[in-house]
Amino acid sequence: MLSSKIAGIGKYLPSNVVTNQDLTAHMETSDEWIVERTGIKERRYAHRTEETTTTMAVEAAKIAIERAGTTAADIDFIVFATLSPDYYFPGCGVLVQRAMGMKEIGALDIRNQCSGFVYALSVADQFIKTGMYKNILVIGSEKHSFGLDFSTRGRNVSVIFGDGAGAVVLQPATNAGQGILSTHLHSDGEAAEILAMYNPGTHANHWGEYANFDEAEIGQMFMSHNMIDSAQNFPFMDGPSVFKKAIVKFPEVILEALQTNGYGPSDLNMLIPHQANLRIAQFVQQKLGLNDEQVYNNIMLYGNTTAASVPIALCEAYEKNLIKEGDLVCLAAFGSGFTWASALIKW
């Protein structure tokens, strides 16, 4: 069976920098409050009308394709991870295919939120291993800023997230022992609603309070003024509960990847965690006994870019020459669902 490798990698970050101080114009918060709880100093926001989840993905994809030494015409499959698509449907995969003038290839959209890119990478890895495809474009891209509650009411969520995109091209590995060694995917939906965006949705508004409507009307509503007035169309997060779960599952799935391949934490050259919260990453680092040179964090500058955070951080570490051929690299993520995942790579 073939193995797959990351042949090219790229990222895109909007030019608009939004600092913690900038957010104080919209909500009761402070730089100290945000940094203490998340480690974030600033984030990037896409242009309101000129940049979309897809346009950012295309820019990251161009770089990844060029670095892979191939062209858009050679891509034979797309796997696109996002929680913030351009449209409710269709997904962003086909929009990338159209924007880049690709052949009539397959395009798959992944909805695993923060774990999305690692899930997408695992899916693409299977297609390479079976020989079905040879050049797969894997993307994580998010435009959170258009759907956040910029008020004191929504600050616990809104201060965390930023926009951006990352992409890789996956190809068959040419050297034995090189590339993706294994991927590990998990989920537990028991507490799905403690990190979720309920509306618009098809759940008959079960998670909202709509006293002004009778049961028949509520069951038919996809979006209403009452939802907007009661802030039911913004993301919800029970931060402390998410933190407690993440600090257990994050190290577990990293150790699973290492132990499956006969390694331990000391063998890692680089851990790229999903940039959820600097405090979570620091806890995981301490739990695994890793030093600062073994972990790469950039949440301080970009916030949490959800499905885009792993490829953006991986690309940045690569561009800084912090990852070299032969290094053992682990990607790991935890997020809404709950879902969590890891991938171990011999670079």
What does this structure look like?
The protein is an alpha/beta fold. It has two domains: about 170 residues, 3-Layer(aba) Sandwich (Peroxisomal Thiolase, Chain A, domain 1), CATH 3.40.47.10; about 120 residues, 3-Layer(aba) Sandwich (Peroxisomal Thiolase, Chain A, domain 1). The chain has twelve helices and 13 strands. A five-stranded mixed β-sheet has the order 1-7-6-4-5, sandwiched between helices. The protein has a four-stranded mixed β-sheet with strand order 8-13-12-11, with helices on both faces. Strands 2-3 form a two-stranded antiparallel sheet. Helix 4 links the parallel strand 4 and strand 5. The longest helix has 22 residues.
CATH topology of the largest domain: Peroxisomal Thiolase, Chain A, domain 1
Helix-residue proportion: 25-40%
Structural class: alpha/beta
Over the alpha carbons, how many angstroms does the gyration radius reach?
20 Å
How are the strands of the biggest sheet laid out side by side? 1-7-6-4-5
In CATH, the homologous superfamily of the largest domain goes by the name Thiolase/Chalcone synthase
* Number of discrete domains: 2
CATH class of the largest domain: Alpha Beta
Q: How would a crystallographer describe the biggest sheet?
A: 5 strands, mixed
Low-confidence runs of at least 5 consecutive residues: none
Sketch the topology as an H/E string, one letter per element: EEHHEHEHEHEHEEEHHEHEHHHEE
List keywords for this structure.
2 domains, single chain, 5-stranded mixed beta sheet, alpha/beta, Peroxisomal Thiolase, Chain A, domain 1, 4-stranded mixed beta sheet, 33% helix, 13 strands, 347 residues
